[in-house]
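HUMAN: Can I see a protein plus its fold?

ASSISTANT:
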Amino acid sequence: MDIAFVIRRGCPRCASIVKRIIDIVPQDWNIVYERETARFLNVPGKELDKIEADIIITVGGDGTVLRTLQRARGPVLGINMGGLGFLSEVELGKVESTVYKLARKDYRIERSIKLKVVLNGVRQVDCTNEVLIHSSRIAKIRRFGIYTSDNFIGLTAADGIIIATPVGSTSYAFSAGGPILYPTLDAIVIAYLAPFISSSRSMVIPPDQEITVKVLGKNEDCVMVLDGQENIKVGPSDEIKVSLSENKAEFINVGRSFFERMRDKLIKNVVD
């Protein structure tokens, strides 16, 4: 069994959690460390895009989970070090009991779709959460043309557009008023950030549709953000195509259902 560790950048406390875990993992497991983790533990490490393991444990927040899903290969289990942590299933008080579950193989692997992103014919990294196309300047509305396959959806004036997976439907798209989708569904959400016309509503489209977004007008500079990790400047001369990727995001589930996480992370936080 190969187990890999990835921590939030610049987080010695996260590295201390890794130390707790390696003290109790089975001795016959092969342990791999991403370079940031290795730096704190003073052990050899690998670049993230060179890591492939049966289990990848991330320690940090959802950003660490998404960065790992972009670069490494293997199912991911996130340990939450603060914040909402919707994708980071394990809280600090459950670390040891979770490791024992992993040792007993008392877990399942859940797979969800990723988005393939092509900018001007060049493929970018796949997205587990969302593709965001947003005005690069504060309080500057932008105009977008949106198409699916050979169909024209319409023109929209807004601060930005979010194209999200079911996993990403609980993130930025949710805060923009989009629907929550069950994570194993094959569907894509389109949501708008502060649309000028109130009739611009979120929609759910089938996974066989390719979404094309064009920034309209002159000097309407924007930025495309991929899972909150990659930032790419885009403008009126650029064409963004988003479709279903052949790759899947893999998550390790140690027992909590999607609805339990939704109640704890979304509904409870709103009510409290």
About this structure: The longest strand covers residues 239-253. DSSP finds six helices and 16 strands in the chain.
